[in-house]
Amino acid sequence: MPKSTTSTPANPYAEWFEQLRAEYGEQLGAMPLPDGLPEHLRGLIERGDEEAIQFMVKLAWQLGTQVGYAAGRREEGRVQMPQPPRSKVQA
Asked: Taking every pair of C-alpha atoms in the chain, what is the biggest distance, in angstroms?
């Protein structure tokens, strides 16, 4: 059977995750996960429990989005407050 000349379109999320892994993989690789989580995830993978894995990814995505949004809002609201003039008067 001849090979198709049309290639599947690139997955932007896969490309983005690979960029993140290349940029931050070493730092995140050194970050410990909570006790029991790696074993739990391994079990989900071995059982092929895609629904539970997707739930974990969705939850992490949602929490990360909320943190990013909150940080952005905090930066938007950050205004440099003028410092009061220093007085030469001493108590």
From this structure: 93
Return the ∠ at Cα 32 (arms to 27 and 34), rounded to 5°.
145
pTM: 0.61
Phi first, then psi: what are they for 80, rounded to 5°?
-70, 115
- Per-position pLDDT tens, the chain of length 91: 555 455 666 899 899 999 999 999 999 999 999 999 999 999 999 999 999 999 999 999 999 999 988 888 887 776 555 566 666 655 5
DSSP state of 71: H
Please tell me the distance from the alpha carbon of residue 91 to that of residue 80, in angstroms, as a whole number.
28
Q: Measured between alpha carbons, how far is 19 from 12 in angstroms, rounded to an integer?
A: 10
- Which residues, 6 or more positions from 52, have their beta carbon under 8 angstroms from its beta carbon? 44
Contact yes or no for 52/59 (Cβ under 8 A): no
91 Cα distance to chain centroid = 52
